[in-house]
């Protein structure tokens, strides 16, 4: 009886001690990190002129913190770890910065090249790939430590010149895909062995691929061509078929306008059977039938489009523009391809990002030193956050998308 009581008291005491330890641990975490945060509710705003980023809450628009010392962010882009805790920022000066979104600090930072243009995170979340202008090529890093695992020079031709690398995306099967601007090539990189990646090269795909995109299902990679009309299309399910030119005849007889800012094909959108693409040097958004890659419609818009961004449900396309029309944003209804709203948020609307389910869109309005939040149904401004010359908004739900 006494033995049984002693054992019972011992077990009870152990339970109490365990609960105390858990309570103390939770108290320590709260004190160390402030209010607990859900990582799926976070985002990053790029402040390029001050080499800083803001960490923001996306459900209740608010600035949580500012991280400084990120170098040249004039063409910065961001990807997120699979657990959405870390943001990887690619700077124009070759900087690769890993930011801890919970502890509001730089976790690691390396200068990996002289001039960088973006990057991607692998399908398994363990690798970071960076596309470089100078020296031209792709470098692969450990997502955990930022240790460099491989370097792939973008050499081409008999003289082994180095090409600028653009349009780098992640693809299924632990692959990366990129385009080589001067080489006129698309490369399919197999990174299953990250220290010795293999490369399949597709040559003579069209003149000067300047940017590229991946379809949301990872099926197609399309590179925009600056040196000629059309797009170069690679079917990743059947890469042995090679690269196919599409839209070769688009606009060949049109007067070419001065190009003030290159459109971003990464801002294209698929909605059902339709693909929406910004036209180079024209005041148009192109609608393409992805079943046969034929041009269906040319939608006149207010200026030269930069991003054509789709609401997550595919019903609306939001379009921003290059100078001198960069104070304007237009909304296209996918139902009938008509413009249903024209907004004037302020000078230099540089980037747009939808909330994960599309009830709101955030606009980076550089010359107003603001990030503005709009309701996508009423088109009313619902919030405005101060920011130093914001040029990009990136939300952590990108972690769950292919090619983002």
Automatic annotation (TrEMBL):
It comes from the Bacteria. InterPro entries: Cyt_cd1_C_sf (IPR003143), Haem_d1_sf (IPR011048), Host-pathogen_enzymatic-act (IPR051200). Pfam families: Cytochrom_D1. This is Protein nirF. It comes from Methylomonas albis.
């Amino acid at each position: 009886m006494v033995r049984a009581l002693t054992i019972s008291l011992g077990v009870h005491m152990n339970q109490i001690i365990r609960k105390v330890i858990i309570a103390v641990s939770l108290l320590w975490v709260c004190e160390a990190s402030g209010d607990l945060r859900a990582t799926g509710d976070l985002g990053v705003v790029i402040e390029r002129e001050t080499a800083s980023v803001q960490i923001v809450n996306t459900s209740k628009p608010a600035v949580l913190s500012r991280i400084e010392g990120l170098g040249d962010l004039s063409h910065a882009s961001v990807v997120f770890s699979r657990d959405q805790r870390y943001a990887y920022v690619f700077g124009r000066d070759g900087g690769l910065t890993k930011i801890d979104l919970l502890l509001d600090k730089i976790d690691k930072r390396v200068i990996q090249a002289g001039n960088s243009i973006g990057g991607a995170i692998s399908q398994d979340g363990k690798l970071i790939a960076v596309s470089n202008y100078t020296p031209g090529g792709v470098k692969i890093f450990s997502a955990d430590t930022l240790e460099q695992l491989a370097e792939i020079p973008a050499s081409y031709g008999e003289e082994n010149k180095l090409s600028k690398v653009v349009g780098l995306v992640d693809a299924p099967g632990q692959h990366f895909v990129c385009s080589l601007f001067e080489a006129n090539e698309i490369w399919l990189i197999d990174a299953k062995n990250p220290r010795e990646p293999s490369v399949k090269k597709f040559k003579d795909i069209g003149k000067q691929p300047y940017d590229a995109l991946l379809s949301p299902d990872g099926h197609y990679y399309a590179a925009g061509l600056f040196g000629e009309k059309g797009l170069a299309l690679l079917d990743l399910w059947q890469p042995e078929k090679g690269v196919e030119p599409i839209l070769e005849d688009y606009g060949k007889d049109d007067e070419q306008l001065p190009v003030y800012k290159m459109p971003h094909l990464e801002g294209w959108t698929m909605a059902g059977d339709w693909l929406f693409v910004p036209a180079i040097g024209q005041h148009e958004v192109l609608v393409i039938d992805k079943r046969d890659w034929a041009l269906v419609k040319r939608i006149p818009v207010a200026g030269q489009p930069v991003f054509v961004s789709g609401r997550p449900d595919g019903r609306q396309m939001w379009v921003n523009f290059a100078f001198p029309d960069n104070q304007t944003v237009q909304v296209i209804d996918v139902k009938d391809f008509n413009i249903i709203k024209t907004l004037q948020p302020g000078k230099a609307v540089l980037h747009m990002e939808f909330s994960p389910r599309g009830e709101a869109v955030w606009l980076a309005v550089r010359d107003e030193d603001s990030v503005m939040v709009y309701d996508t149904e009423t088109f009313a401004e619902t919030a405005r956050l101060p920011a130093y010359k914001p040029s990009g908004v990136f939300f952590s739900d990108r972690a769950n998308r292919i090619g983002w």
